[in-house]
Each structure stands twice: as structure tokens, then as C-alpha cells.
Design goal:
- This protein has helices at residues 22-31, 48-59, 96-105, 124-132, 163-173, 189-200, 232-245, 260-268, 306-313, 332-339, 369-381, 391-395, 401-406, 419-427; strands at residues 2-8, 12-17, 39-42, 63-67, 70-74, 107-111, 136-140, 143-147, 155-157, 179-183, 204-206, 212-216, 225-227, 246-252, 273-275, 279-282, 293-295, 318-324, 343-347, 350-355, 363-365, 384-389, 411-416.
- It is globular, with a radius of gyration of 22 Å.
- It has two domains: 2-19 and 230-427, Enolpyruvate transferase domain (UDP-n-acetylglucosamine1-carboxyvinyl-transferase, Chain, Alpha-beta prism), CATH 3.65.10.10; 22-227, Enolpyruvate transferase domain (UDP-n-acetylglucosamine1-carboxyvinyl-transferase, Chain, Alpha-beta prism), CATH 3.65.10.
- A four-stranded mixed beta sheet has the order 21-22-1-23.
- The protein has 14 helices and 23 strands.
- The protein binds uridine-diphosphate-2(N-acetylglucosaminyl) butyric acid (EPU).
- Uridine-diphosphate-2(N-acetylglucosaminyl) butyric acid binds at residues 23, 26, 92-93, 116, 120-126, 160, 162-165, 186, 233, 303-304, 326-327, 369-370, 397.
Length: 428
């Protein structure tokens, strides 16, 4: 097992290129199950979630190749093999195997998903959708079993705006008989990306990106080629990093429209920012103001950037309130930032950040993916050496992180953990 070491306090400069979107990738790959012939997806990020899904598709009989970000999936020999345990537990998005396998085989058995611990993360809305389409859903010893004689289109109102439920219901509905209408659907760009792939495969979907999605089921779907959208959360992470410790950073391969809430907040803080068609330039920010943020569903401020943004606020003048309305417990990074000298306290669903503070290098642990990003930014901003453990979380979502940051002049490297450190980590 490895840890990350960072010598912080040096300004970063140069260009950093954003990879394909993790939260699209983890839905696009299961979506290939629905086709009868090979599907190719270009621009996938090289992250462990993608590799885990590749091997899950292989487990159910898919033939998959993955090279230079291009994945080719031949789903023709796939079978509805039960996946009640094993690799499905490694990532939350394995729940998309439920919708895709139900859509193609009318049955699936998938272990309850893993992923980041951010407080309660129920999947009741996914199940409500599958049941409305005619599936019988049972929970047997930690795995969800889905069975249907046939799937029939239905009108489904989501009680909670959910990215996962919206995509999962789309996956199950594209080969159902008749029309499905999803009301109060999530509007994230990743939903449009998945709908685009499915449409290219032959599905009939209207309204993806709005809160009402209409799907007319088709008998069969066939292979196609699809290019994934850039990762707005990775782009946002690097924009926040550039605002925290950059002296002129160009973030390349961005769709700025996907990041309007972050761009608005950075402008409010007086961060110099120039927005191009596919690039964002963040200039050197000497003196930044505090701003409050509240996470909301898209196009509101994304919960996935709340943790990195908290690190930036330690450098801002004044007191800021960070409120997460999506996940009640997405504050595990705060204790670690405090170890690095941050002045932050948590009150209910909010964190109050007082700045500016000079962060100091320390030994810290990433409890989840975006906590990891927050700590890496903190390490680059801090004086002295920071050690970050829990890299398995960061590797789930940030492609070639060390190499990309080295490209900006960062001093950051991976190091093997000693037996003693591994013991300490286990008992912590
Ligand atoms: N919710 C329910 N019932 C459900 C589904 C969701 O109550 O059936 C609640 C959740 O507990 C949460 C809210 O609804 O409070 C929103 O959850 P959503 O379903 O939208 O989240 P998700 O689909 O499980 C995706 C991303 C997350 C991101 C959220 C919110 C993927 C694989 N994950 O999760 O990304 O935080 O949407 O935008 O797409 C990350 O990338 O670090 C990450 C955690």
C-alpha cells in the first residue's frame, strides 16, 4: 500500500488537462450491457472504478479491451450472472448493473453497493422505479434480486432528485414495452451523456437534462462509438487548487457551462479567472474574500466540490459557512484539515471556516474520494511536508493525479508504506 507525500508552499504554474468524467464513465460502461453488438467509449479516465467495472463486465461474459482511454465492449455473449458480492462492493456505481441487467435480461442479482461513506445513501428511489416498471425486487442477505416477466413503461415521480435513480431507471426503461416518464429527474450533465450514448445505441429518449425525461422503449439496441464528456468535478478540483496555490494555471478540456456555480463563487472571492470555450485560466490570487456556499442539485454548487472548496476557504479573509444539503456527513475531511492548522468547526450540516490561516504539513488520512482531493490541495498549500494515506479513495476518481500535478511544478510523490505504518493505519 502506498501513501502520498507532498512538499507544499510552492506556487503552481502551467497547463493541466482534465480527463473523462468519472460519474459518466461508471454509468456508460454498464450501459453497454444493453446492446447486442460492440460499443466503443472514447476518453475514459484511467481510474480504479473503470477497471473494476471492466472486470465486472468480463465476469458476466463480456469481451472487453481498454487501451489509451478507449474501451471496447462486446456484450453479445453476456449472461445474467448473479453478482451478490465481490468487486461490486468496491464502488457505489455498481448499482447501474441493476438497471442495465434488468433492462437486457429481465433479471439481476447485485450486491448492495459500496463507495464513499458520506452518511446514509439509500437506493429506495431506484427500487421504486424498477418496481413501477414491473420488476419484483427483494433484498436477500445484502444483495438486491430483481426479476420481471416483462418490463412495461410507467410514470415515475422521484421523491428525491437523484442522479443514480434517474440513470438507473433510464437504463431499465430503454428496452421496456411502451413509454416511461421520469418526473422530478436529476439534470446533471452525466445524465445527458448517458442518454446520448443510449440514443446512439438506438434508444428513444427525450428531455434528458430537464426534470421530465420521456423514454419510448425499443426491442433492441446496437453498438456504437461514443466520446465521454470531460470531468467537471476533476476540472473544478484543479480550478480550486489553482485559486489556492497557483500563479497562473490553464485548465484544459473543460465545459465551462458545467461549472457556472463554481466560476461564480470564485469571481465573488476575487479570484482572477478567464473563461474560454474549452479552457479556464485562473490567475494568481493574492488576497481572496470568504464566501458562503450551499451544495444543491445541478446546476447548484456541487456537493463533490464542497470538500476541496473548504480547503480554499482556509486561505480566504473572513468567516465562511459551508452547508451540504445533499450529504449530512460529508465533513470527515475537517478533522484532518484541523490537524494542518485550519480553523474550522462543524455545526450540524454546516462547517464554519475562519481564515486566512497558513496551513502546516501533517500526516492525514483521506476518508473518501473528495476528502482526498481536499487534503491534496491542503498539502500543496501548506508549509512543510504532508503525508496523505487512504490513496485507494483518490485512485477511484483522479486519473494520473501525481503526474498531472508534477506538470504544474508540484513536488508530490507516492511512497510505499512501512509495515509499522500499515499496522497503525489498520488500528486507526
Ligand atoms: N437519495 C435517496 N434515495 C435514493 C437515492 C438518493 O434518498 O434512492 C438521496 C441521497 O442519500 C442523497 C441525495 O438523494 O442525499 C442525492 O443522491 P444521488 O442519488 O443524486 O447520488 P448518487 O447518484 O448516489 C452521484 C455521484 C456522487 C455525487 C451525487 C450527487 C455517481 C457515481 N456518484 O451519487 O459522486 O455526490 O451524485 O451529485 O455518479 C463523487 O464523485 O465523489 C460522488 C460521491
Amino acid at each position: 500500500m502506498e501513501k502520498l507525500k507532498i512538499a507544499g508552499g510552492y506556487p503552481l504554474k502551467g497547463t493541466i488537462k482534465v480527463s473523462g468524467a468519472k460519474n459518466s464513465a461508471v454509468a456508460l460502461i454498464p450501459a453497454t450491457i444493453l446492446a447486442d453488438s460492440p460499443v466503443t467509449i472514447e476518453g475514459l479516465p484511467e481510474i480504479s472504478d473503470v477497471l473494476t467495472l471492466q472486470s465486472l463486465l468480463e465476469e458476466i461474459g463480456g469481451t472487453v479491451s481498454f487501451e489509451d482511454g478507449e474501451m471496447r465492449v462486446d456484450p453479445s455473449e453476456m449472461i445474467s450472472m448473479p453478482l451478490p458480492s465481490g468487486k461490486v462492493k468496491k464502488l457505489r456505481a455498481s448499482y447501474y448493473l441493476m438497471g442495465a441487467m434488468l433492462g437486457r435480461f429481465k433479471k439481476a442479482a447485485i450486491g448492495l453497493p459500496g463507495g464513499c461513506h458520506l452518511g446514509p445513501r439509500p437506493i429506495d428511489q431506484h427500487i421504486k422505479g424498477f418496481e413501477a416498471l414491473g420488476a419484483e425486487v427483494t433484498n436477500e442477505q445484502g444483495a438486491i434480486y430483481l426479476r420481471a416477466d416483462e418490463l412495461r413503461g410507467a410514470r415515475i415521480y422521484l421523491d428525491v432528485v437523484s442522479v443514480g435513480a434517474t440513470i438507473n431507471i433510464m437504463l431499465a426503461a430503454v428496452r421496456a414495452k411502451g413509454r416511461t416518464i421520469i418526473e422530478n429527474a436529476a439534470k446533471e450533465p452525466e445524465i445527458i451523456d448517458v442518454a446520448t450514448l443510449l440514443t446512439n445505441m438506438g434508444a428513444k429518449i427525450k428531455g434528458a437534462g430537464t426534470d421530465v425525461i420521456r423514454i419510448d422503449g425499443v426491442e433492441e439496441l446496437s453498438g456504437c462509438r461514443h466520446t465521454i464528456i470531460p470531468d467537471r468535478i476533476e476540472a473544478g478540483t484543479y480550478m480550486i487548487l489553482a485559486a489556492a496555490s497557483g500563479s497562473g494555471v490553464l485548465i484544459d478540456n473543460v465545459i465551462p457551462l458545467h461549472l457556472e456555480s463554481l466560476i461564480a463563487k470564485l469571481r465573488e472571492m476575487k479570484v482572477p479567472i478567464e473563461v474560454g470555450a474549452e479552457q479556464v485560466f485562473i490567475g494568481k490570487a493574492d488576497h481572496i474574500n470568504s464566501v458562503d456556499i450551499k451544495t444543491l442539485v445541478y446546476p447548484g454548487f456541487p456537493t463533490d466540490l464542497q470538500q476541496p472548496f473548504t480547503t480554499l476557504l482556509t486561505k480566504a479573509e473572513g468567516s465562511a459557512v459551508v452547508t451540504d444539503t445533499i450529504y449530512s456527513a460529508r465533513f470527515k475531511h475537517i478533522d484532518e484539515l484541523r490537524r494542518m492548522n485550519a480553523n474550522i468547526k462543524v455545526e450540524g450540516r454546516s462547517a464554519i471556516v475562519n481564515g486566512p490561516i497558513q496551513l502546516q504539513g501533517a500526516k492525514v488520512k483521506a476518508s473518501d474520494l473528495r476528502a482526498g482531493a481536499a487534503l491534496v490541495i491542503a498539502g500543496l498549500l501548506a508549509e512543510g511536508i504532508t503525508e496523505v494515506t487512504g490513496l485507494e479513495h483518490i485512485d477511484r476518481g483522479y486519473s494520473n493525479l501525481v503526474e498531472k500535478l508534477e506538470g504544474l511544478g508540484a513536488t508530490i510523490w507516492r511512497e510505499k508504506m512501512s509495515a509499522e505504518e500499515l499496522e497503525q493505519l489498520k488500528s486507526s
